[in-house]
Design brief:
With 217 residues, the chain is an alpha+beta fold. The protein is built from four helices and ten strands. It has two domains: 86 residues, Roll (Outer membrane lipoprotein wza fold like); 72 residues, wza like fold (2-Layer Sandwich), CATH 3.30.1950. The longest helix has 45 residues. It starts with a helix and ends in a 5-residue tail after the last strand.
């Protein structure tokens, strides 16, 4: 092989090796990025709180129930003391109305349990009972919904005092594709989807829709 041919062969070999090493480096970089994303997701899942209620959760639930305004899908237990036939479990219908024995249907919009209880007592005392005593509690809140990059998207029963991290934990945690730095939240009764940072302070309400977006690698 003459000198010119040897030189040309050496140049071609150098270019080929350079391209091969560049491809390997590029492939190694992608693996590193994916590995980092998976590690971030695992860390976020490890930081999710337990879905089991604590004493603090129970106290928060009791406080929440006193300020919560009733809505469609909520199920109530109404006890009229000494009047078993007037007591029972009742659901707020799609129009936001509760129908009880003897009295007129009650619209729940904007009413707390205290307001609802007072109206029941007022109607019962208007010609039906003398000094009626009524107890009202919420048996079940309307559910919330979670979609997107979680293990088990779907409908879940609401528990008073729930924040977005507990909601994600209930839904099986983040998938490896999840963007753990934001969620999209649509409050019940609205069509506005808002971008929120997931954290303990982001409280979820009955009927809310949560969407966990995908991370772009």
């Amino acid at each position: 092989m003459n000198t010119w041919a040897k030189t040309r062969f050496g140049v071609i070999l150098t270019i080929a090796l350079g391209l091969g090493l560049g491809a390997c480096a590029s492939g190694g970089g992608e693996t590193s990025d994916n590995s980092g994303g998976a590690a971030e997701t695992q860390a976020a899942n490890d930081a999710l709180p337990s879905a089991t209620n604590t004493v603090e959760d129970t106290q928060a639930a009791q406080a929440f129930a006193q300020t919560y305004t009733l809505g469609p899908g909520d199920r109530l237990r109404v006890i009229v003391f000494g009047e078993e036939d007037l007591s029972g479990e009742f659901e707020v219908d799609s129009a936001g109305i509760v129908s009880l024995p003897l009295i007129r249907p009650i619209k729940t919009q904007g009413k707390t349990l205290t307001h609802f209880k007072s109206e029941v007592e007022t109607q019962l005392s208007a010609g039906y009972l003398v000094d009626p005593r009524v107890s009202v509690e919420i048996l079940n809140y309307r559910p919330f919904y979670i979609t997107g990059e979680v293990g088990r998207p779907g409908e879940y029963p609401y528990v008073a005092g729930m924040n977005v991290l507990k909601a994600i934990a209930m839904a099986g945690g983040y998938t490896y594709r999840a963007n753990t730095r934001r969620v999209f939240l649509t409050r019940a009764g609205t069509n506005a989807e808002e971008t929120k940072k997931p954290g303990q302070e982001l409280m979820i309400l009955p009927g809310d829709y949560i969407r966990v977006p995908e991370r772009f690698f």
